[in-house]
Specification:
Layout lengths: L10 E8 L4 H4 L9 H25 L4 E4 L1 H6 L3 H7 L3 E4 L12 H17 L6 E2 L10 H7 L4 E2 L9 E4 L7 E3 L9 H4 L14 H18 L2 E6 L1 H4 L2 H15 L4 E3 L2 H11 L3 E3 L20
The protein binds zinc ion.
Length: about 300
């Protein structure tokens, strides 16, 4: 892939945690707050998962990136401080993990600013952003550049970071791509009537598929970015498997295990090409005609 990793490094890996807690449920159904058990399933993240994950990161002496929605920061005022005090990065993940699909730039700007204000109240000054559900709009890069963000980590079109500019704003930011195969939601998430298929995978399987990806990225000089949610991966056997995974990834020769902020800063310093991504659209004449009622 020929990415200019720092001297002595041949690939990079970042372990990221989206501390969605209650926000991702309430954004879609504010009335779900009446469901005490469902709220407790989400609260497991900040209450039990984050402390356990912080302990394992301390044992491994690895720094990670925590994406914290503003609502989570407001609900658990000590959480952000605890994460920052352990030397980790805190980044932006919306205010209430708002659904971003199809919203206009003004509304999205409001969500962004609300999230920034909440993190600011908690004492964090994020340089990175990850869209809730990784849902970016074509106007999002401009909004992020305008607010001085150094990077985003929500797009799915690369194995290594790249510099990205928007449509109007001068300046650019770094994009650090992600992928659904490297997200614990697909492996572990299940709550009746809220999310998941009902299949909960073994942490052994998750460890195996994620390590395979890390090894392949390492062989090709890529950037491995894993996304975990403390309310899922903070549970004991999953956290134990994650601890083994981080140790295994770190043992790969020349693997740079660090925060997304560090990767973004390095990319901004060493990559000169700045990409602009044009919206892909179907010309009117190729838009399929609506079909009639099915025959029979
Ligand atoms: Zn999230």
């Amino acid at each position: 892939m020929n990415f200019p990793w720092p001297e002595g490094r041949r690939a990079a890996a970042a372990f990221t945690f989206d501390v969605d807690a209650e926000s991702c449920v309430l954004a879609h159904d504010p009335a779900a707050s009446s469901r005490m058990s469902l709220m407790s399933h989400q609260a497991y993240g900040p209450r039990v998962g984050v402390p356990r994950l912080l302990r394992l990161l301390r044992r491994l002496d690895v720094r990670a990136t925590f994406f914290v929605p503003g609502f989570t920061a407001d609900t658990y005022p000590d959480l952000v401080r605890t994460i920052v005090d352990d030397g980790h990065e805190v980044a932006h993940h919306g205010y209430l993990h708002e659904p971003m699909r199809g919203i206009d730039a003004a509304t999205e700007a409001e969500y962004l600013d609300r999230g920034l204000e909440a993190l600011d109240r908690a004492g964090a000054h994020p340089v990175g952003y990850r869209a809730p559900w990784w849902e970016m709009n074509w106007h999002t890069p401009d909004l992020l550049v305008e607010r001085g963000f150094a990077y985003d980590s929500s797009l799915l079109d690369g194995d290594v970071p790249y510099r990205l500019r928007g449509r109007a704003e001068p300046g650019d930011l770094v994009e650090i791509p992600v992928d659904w195969s490297l997200d614990d939601w697909e492996q572990y998430a299940f709550y009746p009537g809220w999310t998941g298929s009902g299949v909960i995978e073994s942490p052994r399987k998750a460890h195996e598929m994620w390590l395979l990806e890390a090894e392949a990225q390492h062989a090709e000089g890529g950037c491995f970015v894993l996304t975990n949610h403390p309310f899922l991966s903070g549970r004991p056997a999953r956290a134990a498997a994650l601890e083994r995974l981080i140790a295994d990834v770190r043992a790969l020769d020349g693997m740079w295990v660090t925060t997304l902020a560090e990767i973004a800063a390095h990319t901004a310093r060493t990559v000169t090409e700045i990409r602009h991504i044009e919206r892909v659209e179907v010309p009117e004449k190729y838009v399929p005609r609506p079909t009639g009622p099915a025959a029979g």
